[in-house]
Amino acid sequence: MEELEQRILQTIDERAGELIAFAEDIYGHAEPGFQEVQTAEKVSRMLQSLGLTVREKLAVTGVKAKLKQGGGITIAAIGELDGVNCPSHIHANPASGYSHTCGHHCQLAAMIGSAMALTVPEVAEAMDGNVAFFAVPSEEYNDLEHKSWMMQKGIIRYGSGKSELIRLGEFDDINISMVHHLHMVDTYYDVLLGMNSTNGFIMKLVNYTGKAAHGAIAPHKGINALNAASLALSALAYQRETFKESDYVRVHAIISEGGRMVNVVPDHVVVECQVRAKTMSAMLDANHKANRSFEAGAHAIGAGIQINDMPGYLPVLDAGNSRPLDAAARAAAGGKKVSAIDPALHNPASTDVGDLCHLMPVLAFTTGGFKGSLHSADFEITDKYLAYVLPAKIMALTIFNALKNSAFEARRIMDFYPQHLTKKEYLEYMDGFINQDKK
Ligand SMILES: [Zn+2]
Ligand SMILES: [Zn+2]
Hints:
Blueprint: H1 3-14, H2 16-27, H3 37-49, E1 54-58, E2 62-66, E3 74-80, E4 84-85, E5 98-99, H4 104-118, H5 121-125, E6 130-136, H6 144-152, H7 161-167, E7 176-182, E8 191-193, E9 197-198, E10 200-209, H8 225-238, E11 250-257, E12 268-277, H9 280-301, E13 304-311, H10 326-333, E14 338-340, E15 346-347, H11 353-359, E16 362-367, E17 370-371, E18 380-381, H12 384-416, H13 423-434
Parallel strand pairs: 3-6, 3-7, 7-16, 8-14, 9-15
Antiparallel strand pairs: 1-2, 2-6, 4-5, 8-16, 10-12, 10-13, 11-12, 17-18
Helix pairs in contact: 1-4, 1-12, 2-4, 2-12, 4-12, 8-9, 10-12
The structure holds zinc ion (ZN) (2 copies).
Residues 102, 104, 139, 181 line the site of one zinc ion (ZN).
């Protein structure tokens, strides 16, 4: 390993205590998406303490700092800011009920730790390109009510942090992104390089309007919105045989408002639904069938219906292309057990990293260091080195290797990457949902 590479790993080891304290502070103070005000402030302070000029409040709470002035090939070291609504977790923030049970605080440690190493002047000088340390808001798609309110107020247009940042041009100066996550599959390995393909999704909010009447004396005078929703969900279930196994379609719904009093015919019912699939075409096909089903319920009962579709996330594609530079990542991992993800495995959950993957190469890796399940009360960090320190080393060494030697490896990654959408096409897709005629 060359001297500067050793210096990168050494710097992170020397500052490990500081990095762990930062991560643990974030861990105990999780905040909802687009409301990560305190988290963003802490990230900003850390980046400023490294001598970086920081831009704040990007897409409400995002924080971005460039290593150098000027351009050149730029790699973004990304950390997500938001927590998960899981109030029963032992480290849930009492103020918000949110917890970091998706491990996004580990990503922030990776990003800050890589900034600690890459801001060492000799290291920065040896890179022929730029690095953006980028804390991004709202990866989880929860708190829909608040998001809808923000959309109505024009504070955001799309539902996720990365989508908003793409829209606002904050990824225009980024050529490659690098992301970390805790393991999303059971594995014997400490580090998995790359990322599995994931489903994309469309978020749906369906409002049924009926007519209230006494449930016993005059139900014939009412229009039962709950019956309309119930029929629609049955119709939706009948669509399932038309979904191909290979498309991993998932359609799941809840009735978030189902009536107010049992002796009143429900006149307002709200169904929330997510339509997920492995490809955009399968997603759009399943969404069309879902809309038909929801309309059928309204038609049969004579209820009014309004369907609001919101663009969720795009699928992660090219799982095999998302592996960081193997040699650098393995060198950073030292004696830890490292493997590549099995690109044949598909993850039916969704992430807005999928949106980025359509526009630019994304280098991804996952680490262990926790027990229990993501998004669950039993989630707990068990190995601070694996969860907080090692991800920083892998991120820093990979970025350094991509940008040294006239950014040879970064150029290779960019040449090899098949761009799926231009930014213009991406925005047209997203706006297609927003501009559609509301029924
Ligand atoms: Zn999550
Ligand atoms: Zn996550």
